[in-house]
Write a structure and sequence with these properties.
The protein is of the alpha+beta class. It has helices at about 35-45, 65-70, 120-125, 135-140, 145-155, 160-190, 195-215, 235-260, 265-270, 275-285, 285-290, 300, 325-345, 400-410, 420-425; strands at about 1-10, 10-20, 25, 50, 80-85, 95-105, 105-115, 225, 230, 365-370, 375-385, 390-395.
């Protein structure tokens, strides 16, 4: 069997690919490279190839087996108690199990078990792309429809027109804006600061409606397709987008000013849920969570594609690694995204929006596509067979990298800080259960 690894490094614009032949086992990479721990557990779970020497080879997406074997980590000692939350939660939240080992109110260890959805999307993507493939791609993580659809399109297309690339970038930044604004509203709610929570809830809807103005769907379904996009921007739509953006931007800044000028909010955010730069690098955090801990990785800058190749962006980095830093990264990226969208609307290239050349994948190839979604790095990888069909399709949602970061952020924190820390990461359950 052939084991392949694709490595990215912000300091190197080229991706590195390594491969080796393995039998039923190989020496684990995790002891020397903790970033590999979840990938190696998944390899063992899905293909029965054991990484020898892996420190904690528990299931990734088989939580019931985990519970049956009592594989959960336990802390012993007087006054240690265990708090189990989920997998069924109140409201409409997706299923996930959180097991806290506590001494009094202080969390000694948090273990997160996912995999309750059994979605099987990666398996459904094997074979030749068909009419159902875009649906599977766009529902990998519904709040990241544009990010995943763009990653897939880049994977299989030979090219897309400049105007289509600009429209994709506009949609991607609107997706980032809607989710960042929504996250800051949710963070406000978790500390009982209702003005910003209410304003941001409404403003998130306003931003989603801008995407609906472009393609008829608030999450952008049906917009991005291999070879380009399916909906153009008429002069009237551009004018409407610019007008609405101006109003929304002003309202967003007003609501965030309330948030970041409230001493009670800052007191709850600051020093809560810290993840150091060293830890963030060791475990491979991505996206705003990583940039809030002093790491500067951003695919739009270090591995740019599409319209981002013509942009001169700087990574938005904070150093403290706490809830306040993660909130500040979102605040600064919101300002940047408004600027990007305005610039693209003003200077959108003329021309067609769809390359009509037939899509034909090269046979016997390994293909990789990277996109910076609003949560962080999205990776789509495919291996093709002798007729260009997908022999294997692998998706790495940014949440796959970041769930361990949430667990580590809770160590030494009061268990009552979990909702705030959880919202400050805002990770995807369905993006992890593929």
């Amino acid at each position: 069997r052939q084991l392949c690894a694709v490595l990215s490094d912000p300091s190197n614009p080229r991706l590195q690919i390594a491969s080796t032949t393995v039998g039923n086992s190989y020496p684990a990479l995790t002891p020397d490279c903790p970033q590999a721990h979840l990938f190696e557990r998944e390899i063992f779970e899905q293909h029965a190839v054991e990484p020898l020497g892996h420190p904690w080879l528990k299931p990734v997406r088989k939580p019931l087996e985990m519970a049956a074997k009592d594989d959960f980590y336990k802390v012993d000692g007087e006054e240690i108690h265990e708090v189990a939350v989920g997998p069924v939660h109140a409201g409409v939240i997706e299923p996930g199990h959180f097991r806290f080992q506590c001494h009094g109110e202080i969390v000694q260890h948090l273990e997160i078990a996912l995999g309750y959805q059994h979605r099987g999307i990666e398996a459904r993507l094997v074979g030749k792309p068909n009419l159902r493939t875009p649906h599977y791609i766009e529902t990998l993580a519904g709040d990241t429809t544009i990010g995943h659809a763009t990653a897939y399109a880049q994977l299989i297309e030979t090219s897309a027109p400049p105007r289509a690339k600009a429209i994709r970038a506009i949609a991607a930044e609107l997706e980032r804006l809607a989710n960042h604004v929504g996250d800051l509203g949710a963070l406000s709610g978790d500390v009982g600061f209702l003005p910003t929570m209410s304003y941001c809830g409404r403003l998130r809807g306003d931003l989603l409606n801008l995407t609906a103005l472009i393609c008829g769907n608030r999450f952008g379904r049906g917009l991005v397709r291999p070879g380009g996009v399916q909906f153009d921007l008429s002069p009237k739509i551009i004018q409407t987008l610019e007008t609405r953006l101006e109003t929304i931007e002003s309202d967003v800044y007003s609501s965030l000013k309330l948030l970041f000028n409230a001493p009670s909010v800052l007191a709850r955010f600051e020093e809560t849920g810290k993840v150091s730069t060293k830890t963030a690098r060791e475990i491979g955090l991505v996206g705003p969570a990583a940039r809030a801990s002093g790491c500067d990785g951003d695919v739009r800058i270090h591995h740019p594609s599409g319209a981002y190749r013509q942009m001169n962006l700087e990574p938005v980095v904070e150093k403290e690694g706490d809830c306040l830093a993660r909130a500040h990264v979102r605040q600064r990226e919101i300002k940047e995204s408004f600027q990007i969208v305005r610039s693209l609307l003003k200077n959108c290239p003329e021309g067609t929006i769809q390359n009509t050349d037939p899509i034909k994948l090269e046979p016997n190839r390994l293909i990789v596509s990277l996109v910076e979604g609003w949560r962080g790095e999205i990776c789509h990888l495919a291996l093709t067979g002798s007729e260009g069909e997908f022999l294997h399709y692998k998706v790495v949602d940014p949440s796959f990298h970041n769930w361990l970061g949430l667990a580590l952020a809770l160590r030494g924190e009061a268990i009552s800080d979990f909702p705030l820390c959880n919202k400050s990461f805002n990770l995807s359950y369905c993006g992890n259960d593929l």
